[in-house]
Design a protein that fits this description.
This protein has six helices and no strands. It is mainly alpha-helical.
Length: 149
């Protein structure tokens, strides 16, 4: 049973997405590349980082990160290069600045809007008087005619 659990864990492991030919010889650079890859979104898989994705574009991004690190870029320079090329959408956790303010504020704004609509609805519903629900004399006569048939 332990063997089966181990086999399933190895198969399901996201480490298998990184191919052996992508791994850098320098362990320090490889560790930096892995750390950077965890914060980059696979543009095909949406909310999966490029380290866990088997998509070809994710592989290209992993190789690009490693190329930039081997070329001597700092972590910030490598991320900046990729963001310049693919846009802020490639970041799994984009900074709250510029155009991303709309994204950061949309959730709370929709929550407040929904709460306001619910409050207005409940308030109006509470103000309804029983007189509004009563039938007019003509409606009562028509209802009697229908029921007596």
């Amino acid at each position: 049973m332990k063997r089966l659990a181990l086999i399933l864990a190895l198969i399901a492991s996201p480490l298998w997405a990184v191919q052996p030919d992508e791994v850098l010889d320098d362990p320090a650079l490889e560790a930096r590349a892995r750390a950077l890859s965890e914060g980059l979104r696979c543009l095909v898989c949406r909310n999966e980082n490029i380290d866990a994705s088997n998509a070809q574009l994710a592989r290209d991004l992993r190789l690009l990160v490693r190329e930039r690190l081997v070329a001597g870029d700092t972590d910030e320079e490598a991320i900046s290069f990729i963001v310049d090329r693919y846009g802020e959408y490639v970041l799994l956790n984009p900074p709250a600045s510029g155009s991303t303010w709309v994204l950061w504020l949309a959730g709370p704004a929709m929550l407040l809007l929904g709460g306001g609509i619910a409050a207005v609805y409940i308030r109006r519903r509470g103000r309804a008087t029983p007189e509004d629900d009563q039938l007019t004399d003509a409606e009562e006569a028509r209802l009697r005619d229908i029921l007596n048939g």
